[in-house]
Amino acid sequence: QLSDGRVVTNFIVxxxxxxxxxxxxxGHQTRSFSYVEDTVxxxxxxxxxxxxxxxxxxxxxxxxxxxxxxxxxxLTNSDSKLIYKDLPVDxxxxxxxxxxxxxxxxxxxxxxxxxxxxxxTIEWIKNVK
Length: 129
Fold this sequence. Notes:
By secondary structure, the chain is of the alpha+beta class. The protein is about 45% helix and about 10% strand. The strands form two sheets. A two-stranded parallel ribbon has the order 1-4. Strands 2-3 form a two-stranded antiparallel sheet. Helix 1 packs across helix 5 and helix 3 packs across helix 5. The longest helix is centred in the C-terminal third of the chain and has 15 residues.
């Protein structure tokens, strides 16, 4: 659903509509974005692991929210501008999973580059809008 309130879909929809992109805080907070294929591959590795255990699955490459917004504008060739609003009190400054265990025990490795994942997501959103 495109109105799910998640930063990637919000930014892409705003950029495709040439609306201003809303960044909360100064945009320096970081997130680690995982493309769905990487996430599913990691879940399958964990599911097929012979013992019950807990694993972090995702991507450990961090990107600032401001850099994400700028990249989305570039990839959509948008005229959108960044506008800044107050950071919600409960918004974490960093989200980055520790994938050490998943990489060592499962052989998990995210492979989809952020630009490729965003480009695929942009095309998907264009088709469902």
